[in-house]
Amino acid sequence: MPTTRVALATCSILPDLDPDDVPLIGALAERGVEAVAAVWDDAEVDWDSFDLVVVRSTWDYSSRPEEFIAWARSVPRLANDAELIAWNTDKYYLKTLGEMGIPIVRTLWLDPDRHLTSQAIHTRLPAHGDYVIKPTVSAGSRDTARYQENTAQARGEAILHARELLRSGRHVMVQPYLNQVDVAGETGLVFIAGEFSHAIRKNAMLSRGHRPTQGLYQEEVMRSVEASEAELALAQRALEAARTILGTAAESLLYARIDTLPGDDGEPILLELELTEPSMFLAKAPASLERFADAIAARAAR
Ligand SMILES: Nc1ncnc2c1ncn2[C@@H]1O[C@H](COP(=O)(O)OP(=O)(O)O)[C@@H](O)[C@H]1O
Ligand SMILES: [Mg+2]
């Protein structure tokens, strides 16, 4: 029987994968699967030659999402699949989920085609409370920043930030800064093959006066945590809504991570539904490595 071969897709800055994904290679070898790291935009890779390609640390696509989606569509056996990725790489999907009754962060969407003036942006920024400006296509907190509510300087910087993103053709989100994240942090719920696996807690990422991050991703402080009933229920609802929209079965989602922030009343709110390239934090929950390897091996053997 020929060996089952799997590619773990990454980016050229991390050609040997994110350290958290490296143990997958050994775990898959134990299951008779030969896994290799492969850079998604490396023209030399023959994607046809793999039984399965799993998207992992492809974090440099946010400045060229069309290219990334075209690549995804060109790979014969990709997990998660290309249509899912096309839908999920642009945070406009949150708008749809919000309309379906999922609690999302209150968001103002700025369209680059409207050619908003500084004054027009100014009138759209919240008058009270800190707020966040970020592009709809982003990963790893890139180009994301928090602004203080009532200083003229912060307002000027925020307008400049929004204008720069819009000028480069990017869609922009303006959200109130959810203060509870400073105390409680963000909870990420990881699902493998449609089933809840483990949860992690991430510290707040955006301090006041912090410049928008330009690097590949911002360093994160993370620990394992037990998800609350409310967080689990929200995650299940969000996944179910995504499946309804995309017409996919539960187990056909090889991986998913649902990130939630506490609202002012402490109830969880959906920040992000990551079906494209979530860090899984396998090292934080050891059994999850085995679970993920099992799921990949099963999918590759189909
Ligand atoms: N509305 C918000 N309130 C508080 N923190 C936020 C908000 N939006 C983003 N953040 C912070 O910024 C980080 C990155 O934002 P996120 O929406 O998850 O985008 P990315 O796709 O870059 O991960 C989050 O992990 C969180 O710490
Ligand atoms: Mg995030």
UniProtKB/TrEMBL annotation:
Q: Which UniProt keywords apply?
A: ATP-binding, Nucleotide-binding
- Gene Ontology terms for molecular function: ATP binding; metal ion binding
Q: Carries keyword Lipoprotein?
A: no
InterPro entries with a match to the protein in the record: ATP-grasp, ATP_grasp_subdomain_1, DcsG_Biosynth_Enzyme
Q: Does the keyword Coiled coil apply?
A: no
Annotated ATP-grasp domain residues: 94-301
SUPFAM superfamilies found in the cross-reference section: Glutathione synthetase ATP-binding domain-like
**Protein's recorded name:** ATP-grasp domain-containing protein
Query: What is the protein's species of origin?
Result: Sanguibacter antarcticus
Specify the taxonomic lineage. Answer: Bacteria, Bacillati, Actinomycetota, Actinomycetes, Micrococcales
